[in-house]
Each structure stands twice: as structure tokens, then as C-alpha cells.
Design goal:
binds magnesium ion; 18 helices; seven-stranded mixed sheet; 12 strands; binds guanosine-5'-triphosphate; signal-anchor; transferase; 42% helix
Length: 459
Amino acid sequence: MAIFLSRRLIRTLVFSVISLVILLALLNSHKSTAAYVPTPFRVVNVGSFGMGYGSSATDEEIDELVSDNLTTLDKEAEETRKKAEKAAAAGEKKDPNEETEGSKALEEAAVDAAGKPVEMSLMDFLKPTFAKAGSKPKAAFVTLARNSNLQGLIGSIKKMESRFNHKYNYPWVFLNEVEFSDEFKNTVKSLCSGPVSFGLIPEEQWSYPEWVDLDEAAAGRKKLADNNVIYGDSESYRHMCRYQSGFFWRHPLLDDYDWYWRVEPDTRITCDIPYDPFQYMQDNQKAYGFTITIHEYEATIKTLWKTTKDFLKGHKDYIVEDNLSKFISEDDLETYNLCHFWSNFEIASLNLWRSPQYKAYFEYLDKSGNFFYERWGDAPVHSIAAALFLPRSAIHYFNDIGYYHPPYHNCPIDADLHAERNCECEAKSDFTFRGYACGRQYFDAQKLERPANWKEYSN
Ligand SMILES: Nc1nc2c(ncn2[C@@H]2O[C@H](COP(=O)(O)OP(=O)(O)OP(=O)(O)O)[C@@H](O)[C@H]2O)c(=O)[nH]1
Ligand SMILES: [Mg+2]
């Protein structure tokens, strides 16, 4: 009897343990698929457009954010980075005959033996990237900066690490047209939890191309400066915009990556990011992700739309079906409404810019010289390309990522999400539905229903 009872007891115990293990496994698998899926939107028709202005953050707000005491985290970051660099160095010693899956292979597949582009849609070009669904994305943060941006960058990196990257240890690539100082390198290395590399920009990518007339460029700068246009007289700003449009993704330090997250000085991630946005992009066939939309200063892009239309005349097939063109034009592409994704934050596919379609578009724009004669920004250039050459399903609004670039915030206006993600931004500072933003145009173009409470945050 005693033996019989204890056998029954053992069987019950074994059964309970197995059930518990199965239950835990189920819960865990549910978490891993659901974790990176941001709040879904429903698809319905939406209303009209109005004017208003977003609220600005104060200098005190920035100071308070910068002065965060993250010393323990910094040490942890440095230790993790060292480990990650060792692992990366070990990985570099791989078989040189191993087939490369990097940018070179993709670009080679897009041309024939004679170097002529093969007929291939942009989504076909991106297919090998999306075929990697489920595997860890080849991704890096990319920061273009001057040595003098160091102080502004410290806060940006600390927040990115504490809100997201300390769990993922993605690498960071810093680019500059002059050598980074030792102080710059040592400081940022001590803050990043992943491998860090520093790249020098080739001179021909940060200087005037031979077809640009320098007198005409000087006259163009004077005209914008006389009209008080921001950065109107700046040459370096123009080189920066041209570089961000046509070159950063060609830097050899990025060759092995599929994805990048652009980070600028003086920006802040203001809510926890408890999932991997790169993974979300890769697994869901997204090619371009953003947080803030805004109107461009018309004076800086007087002929951008005309030049774009001229280009499209020869490349009608580049405009894909079910694109996001309504985001950039409300009259069937007759005129540009100045809406764009604010490119100081981008989580996107490097292969989008490496595609034959985008490269041809950039070359055409560049030949006009108007990155210099006018002051074309990389934000409208990227946005127009994404809105026309990608299906709208490949463009993603990270409504759940709290982000601040002076003077505008993307801050979740959903109270539950705001609390769940530990946001430090104020929902009332959210820019999305203010008149100068383009959230309304975006939601319309994507046929998304605006959040129920959007009007409270609209002026
Ligand atoms: N290396 C280098 N980086 C630059 C230069 N000018 C701007 N950048 C970087 O390019 C990015 C965009 O420049 P910003 O000055 O922030 O331009 P912006 O965001 O339009 O304007 P702000 O409102 O001033 O932030 C930032 O990451 C800067 O650090 C430059 O001359 N050299
Ligand atoms: Mg900036």
C-alpha cells in the first residue's frame, strides 16, 4: 500500500512538473512573438487637416536629461562593449571564401555581367534582407558628428543605452569628415555597450563635385541668408545633407550591416523600448521607420519637386502600387506638400538606399547641384523616395518610441502605453497631430484611424 501510494505521488509530481514546463514554454513563446509588435492601429477613413503649432521643450529640460546619473550603467556598458568587441574580432577571422551576404552581394545581384542594372523591383532587391526574418538583424547605430558634438552626444548615447541597447549591445558607427579626437573616441567608447568604430569620410564625398559652380553656390547661400533661412549661409550644413542623402550608407564600416538607426547629438529616447525595433523591421518587411513628421521650409527646396518629377518621367516603373504618395502630395503628385519624416531619427534598411532605384534618384538630384545652390535636406529626399518607391506597408511609425530632438517630441498619448514604458516625456508635448507636423497626412495616407484622443493633442 505504502509503495502504491508513493508511486502515485511520484506520478502526480512528474505530471505537475511537465505541465508547468509546457505552460512556461507556451507563455515564453507568446512573449517572444508579441514583444516587438507595437500597438496596432485599426484601418478606417479619417477627417480633415487644421493648423496649430507644437510645444517646445525648455533648456532646463535638456539640462535635466543630460545630468542623469548613470555611472553604474556606464561601467556596465564599457564591460559589455569590451566583451562584444572581442566576440566581433573573433568573428572577423572567418573563412575568406565564405559567401558574403553583405551589401556587395546585394548590389552585384542587381547588375548583369556588363554592369547594367537588371530589371528588379525595389522589394525584390530587399527580398534577401527580409528572408532573414527571425535571425538577429545585422544592425548598427550610425552617428555623423563633429568632435565639438561630444557633449551633446553623451546624453543621446546614455539614453539610448539605458532605454534600449544595454539589453541588445548593438554596435555603434561614428562618422566624421575629419579624424575624431582621442577624447571623443574614449568618451563615447566608455558609454556604448556594443562594439564601436570610427570612420573617416572620403574627401570626395564631403566637397564640391566638379559640376557645381562655386559662384552660383555662393549666390544661393547669400539669397537664403538674406531671407533668414536657417543654415541658409552654411556650406557645412549642405555637405552634411548631401552626405546623409547619398553617401553614409556607402561607408565601408557599414558594408556588413542591413539596418541602421540614426542618432544625433542632443536627442533623447524618453521611454523604455522593451523589444528590438530592428527585429521588428526585419520580421515584418518594413524598410523605413520614423517617429516625427514635419513640413520642410519651402525656400530650401524650391526646385526639388520639379527635379523629382523630371526624374520620374524616365522611371515611371519606380513608383510602386499602393505607395504612400498621399503623405507627400494631396493633388496626385502635382505638387509636394512639404511633408517629410524628420530624418534625425531613422530606423531603416541600408539596402533601401543601396537599391538601384534610390541610387539613380540620388545621382539625378545630385547632378542638378541643388544640394548647394538651394539647400536640399536629406529628410525630404529620403521621404519622397520612401513614399514613392516603397509599398506603404513597408513604412512604419514607431508611435511607441518616446523621442526628442529639440524642439519636438514624439511622446505616446496612450496613457497605458505611457505608463507601461516608463516615459519621462509629457504626453501633452507630443508633436504628432500639431498643425506643423504631418501626422494627419500620414494617418490618412496609411488609412489608419487616429487615436481616439488625438484632438486633445492637436493644437
Ligand atoms: N562631421 C560633421 N557632422 C556634422 C556637421 N554638421 C552637422 N553634422 C551632424 O549631422 C547631423 C545633423 O546636423 P544638425 O546640426 O543636428 O542638423 P539639424 O538636426 O537639421 O539641425 P539642429 O536643429 O541644429 O539639430 C548631426 O548628427 C550632426 O552632428 C559637420 O560639419 N561635420
Ligand atoms: Mg539635429
